[in-house]
Each structure stands twice: as C-alpha cells, then as structure tokens.
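User: Need the bound-state model for magnesium ion:
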Amino acid sequence: MSFINYSSREINCKIVYYGPGLCGKTTNLQYIFRRMNPGDRGKMISLATETERTLFFDFLPVSMGEIRGFKTRFHLYTVPGQVFYDASRRLILRGVDGVVFCADSQITRMDSNLESFDNLRINLREQGYDPDRIPLVLQYNKRDVNSLASVSELHALLNYRNVPEFEAVASTGVGVFETLKGIIKLVLIDLKKGGR
Amino acid sequence: MVSPMNQNRFILHEKEYNEFQSVLKKLLIDSYAKVVFLVDKNGSLLSSAGETGDFDTTSLASLAAGNIAATGGLASLIGEKEFSILFHEGQRDNMHISLVDNRLILVVVFDGRSSIGLVRLRVRRAGEELGRILKAVDETAEREEEGGVIEELTEADIESLFK
Ligand SMILES: Nc1nc2c(ncn2[C@@H]2O[C@H](COP(=O)(O)OP(=O)(O)OP(=O)(O)O)[C@@H](O)[C@H]2O)c(=O)[nH]1
Ligand SMILES: [Mg+2]
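Assistant: Bound-state model below.
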C-alpha cells in the first residue's frame, strides 16, 4: 500500500524482490546501494545469517526525484529465498506495491525458480492480492554463468503474464537499474489507476 | 485486519498530519520520553517528535514494522490475535512499541527519567486520540476518491523521473 503524504509532499511505495535462495536478490540491493548517490538513498539494513543468507529481509530506501512537486521514495525489500523461511516471506509481502521476481538462470535452478514463483503467487493471494494483476517484472539473473537456460526457456517457464523481463548479472550490475526502473514505472502507473 | 480503505494507498493530508504531530508532542512531554515515532504497519514514517536527530528514522520505522510483523506472526502461531505491546529494555534506553487500531505503530524511546508504567499509561491515552484522527483520515479518503495529484499523473511525468 503506497503512502501519500501531502504535508511533506512525498509518495512512498514498497517494492519486494522475490525469488529462490541464492538467485541474487540481496546482490541487486547491494549494487543499488553502492551506485546511488548517498543523498538519494538511505542505509541498507540486512537481517542475515552468519553465512550472509537473508534471514528476515534486506531494506534499502531510495529516492527517485520529484513528480509534480512530490518526492518519490521507494522502499526496496528482499525476502529470504530459502524454502523454510516461508512465514517471513509472507510478512514481507504485506502492503507490497510491486514485485521483482529474480530468477536464477542456471539450468540446474529451473525447479527452484518455478517453486519460488508458485510460492509467490500463493502468498500474494493469501495477502489479498490478485497475482495476475499486481505490478510485476522478471529479472533473469546470472547471465554470466556457464550452463545457462535461454531467455525463451525462462520466458516460457515464468512469464505467462508477458510482463517486462530483464537479463542481468547483479554481481557486476548489468540490468540492475533497468529492472528497478521497470518496476517503478509499473508501480506508478498502477497507483494512478487506483485500487486494484 | 482489513482497513475501511478499499484502495491501495494511504493518503495523509496536512490537517491530520498536524493533528498526529500534536498528539506526539504531547505524548513526548507527558511521558518524559526522549523521542516518539508514528509509523504505518508497512514501515513508512508518518511523524515523530523529540531528539530525532540522533536516529536514522527511516531504518527505525522499517525495523519497528518488521518487529511488529514478526511478533504478530508468532502470536498467531500460538493462537493469539496479536501482541499489541512490545517492550525492549536496554542498558540506558528502552523502547515501547504498540499498535494503534492494528494499523499504526507507536514507538516511544525513553530512559531513566521516565518509567514503563508512566509510558504505558500515556501511550494508552495517545492511542485513543490517534485512533480518532485515523478515522478522520479514512473519512476524508472516502469523500475525495478522485482529484488528487496521483490521478493527474501522466506517462510523461513518470518517464521524466528517468531522464
Ligand atoms: N555469477 C554470478 N553470481 C551472482 C550473480 N548475482 C549474485 N551472485 C552471487 O550469488 C550468491 C548469492 O547472492 P545473494 O544476493 O546473496 O542471493 P539471495 O537471492 O539474496 O539469497 P537468499 O538471501 O538466500 O534468498 C552471492 O555469492 C552472489 O555474489 C550473478 O549475476 N552472477
Ligand atoms: Mg538475500
């Protein structure tokens, strides 16, 4: 649920990066954190295990400039991808305005991608969202690895809604900001349309 | 709990913002707190009062919301509806976190100048007033479904963000 504050003239929206364990969600946020002007982003909070797996969430607030005199701020969250953290994923999804589904392009991870995508749909429905209408973009990450699924395979597996899709190498930043812009656009368009 | 707003957004106008602000200021004084914050359940900061300069308020808002969400999850696992009050005791500073109408989160940071009993009492009273303001926010939202800045957004406006 976006928050519009007429007093401070701000629009706040919540974007969640979802996807299987180790697909690179946290890496996306780390890259955004490093590359953005410090004046345009806040601190990054990572609630992680000792082995740097996300335990509860990562959080990064970013500002994207003004529209019609309103500052636009986006709160970026990642969920923990490991299967057994499902209860936490559901909590993070509350109040979400847009989802980036981050898929792992390694051939061996196709089952995990699909399982996580199904899990996203179930959890969205549980929170009262229509999984076929919520603003969504897909990111095919790890395009630099050797045994790679083709984009058309990934598309056939995950993109039945035909939403914007982006190839990425989050560890070097390829495609990271394209993905972010993609979801921000959809979120703002959805906000303009009003209730869903 | 589902809010009366059937929209996907929470709109706060100047008037109610100022009212929130004055409740917080009063709470700050009456409870001898260091700082008080009002946060929505999704982690956006609505308003604050006190020595906020020492705090990263955005991070604090998000973690308070995460904390409430996690304990809410724990509550439902043992068949409770919600733990509506959380209390964290530190060496010097303490934090009292409570839910207002299951929608807003009120955070009070205080030290030895105050006490948990006093804070609890003042928070209860402030909570009632915040709840009343929240109702007014909802009523305004129902009245003026259209005509805000958002409806006037054009694709060109959105594109201009990325120039
Ligand atoms: N080769 C390659 N490695 C990547 C890429 N993106 C991320 N990684 C690596 O993949 C590993 C896992 O990345 P994370 O960002 O922690 O994964 P995550 O999705 O947050 O994982 P969970 O927190 O467990 O859900 C790290 O070692 C990253 O450096 C990429 O595009 N290519
Ligand atoms: Mg992670």
